[in-house]
């Protein structure tokens, strides 16, 4: 007997966890936390999710698609002895992210990250007996994100995770090339994200069509103002590289040490792949200015930058440095999450320069500024000032999902990671496959053997 169960994510964005069982063995794809601010009102809270998945069974293996918190965020709650798998660069980035996130947490997660096992793109492996998995490297706003092609009970399942085709990695029809090379011609079950089903009206409003468009519009904005504060996720490397490469010559590109470590880690890995010049140092800015004084951590940062095929150099700079005022800058700004105990250099620079030919460029999901997922620390940084929205989605547009469906021709399509699952089959581009769409509910098993929903809801195992 083989089943697929979406424990959480059939009717919400984030907080995902999907189980595939075959012959008594199981894998779990992602074990994510609810989006910021959503846990209290969520149908299934994070603490309930842990009990739901591991309360009676502490076995299997967990495969993370990427390093966004709504996909890996409950990793500390995975029982000891249950192996966890993640992409190699994603693991390196978590080595930087997790200690930063955990700085005020009693329970630290770095030792758990170190135990995660890297998988290899395009290489089949068996995390548990009877289930084979091939990770497929895809475009997303998190680098080192993966789809999974899965063989279980004689069926082929394609699980998209979060993906898109309009970022740096998605150029030159990468998705088609990957699918043609690694995915069998017959896909029995497609489980696809559908984030943009409810956000399509944002394209052209608060969203640019692609990362390339974002970079071009960013340069236009930078040329209008001397002091540019860019609010962008420090782990959104595609957008960061666009801001970096489009910083006008003569201005300084500035970040802090935490952001510099993520940049150089990602750039080194992408250089090794040899396929993405957008991740190489800019000829206009071979030196990145890093806020703060050099300390013992700088040696490794500088060594990595100097030994790259295309060297990238780092130079420390103080927020009082006269060249910032003289030349202007593009600053990767960050909110201050500890205002009571920490004085942020970003706040100091904002207060000094923003009203003197400065601007805030907001490059995140607009939901963090309003509604249920509002982030008060971000709101405090903006302080009611006008902002320029300049962001592109990390998720596939409906046209991209339709192209995927056409390429793999699945027998059954299950949408998830969406608030509009019931509307999937009625969206015009999906109408040709409406009779293949199966909308699931959290916790209800779907038989992989027969490709049907079980007759009654069963408790999660």
End-to-end Cα distance? 14 Å
Tell me the name of the CATH homologous superfamily of the largest domain: Ribonuclease Z/Hydroxyacylglutathione hydrolase-like
The tally of structural domains comes to 2
Q: pLDDT below 50 for ≥5 consecutive residues: which ranges?
A: none
Q: Could you walk me through the main structural features you see in this protein, from its secondary elements to its overall organization?
A:
- The protein is of the alpha/beta class.
- It folds into 2 domains: 2-199 and 394-453, Ribonuclease Z/Hydroxyacylglutathione hydrolase-like (Metallo-beta-lactamase, Chain A); 202-392, Rossmann fold.
- It contains 13 helices and 23 strands.
- The chain has helices at 46-54, 69-72, 88-101, 110-115, 174-182, 211-222, 237-245, 257-273, 298-307, 322-327, 345-353, 376-382, 398-408, and strands at 2-8, 17-22, 25-29, 61-63, 84-86, 117-118, 125-128, 131-138, 145-152, 155-159, 189-193, 207-208, 227-232, 252-256, 287-291, 313-317, 329-333, 358-363, 387-389, 391-392, 412-416, 446-447, 452-453.
- Strands 6-5-4-3-2-1-22-23 form an 8-stranded mixed sheet.
- Strand 2 and strand 3 (25-29) form a beta hairpin.
- The longest helix is centred in the middle third of the chain and has 17 residues, at 257-273.
- The protein is globular and about 70 Å long.
- The two termini are 14 Å apart.
- The model has no long low-confidence stretch (mean pLDDT 93).
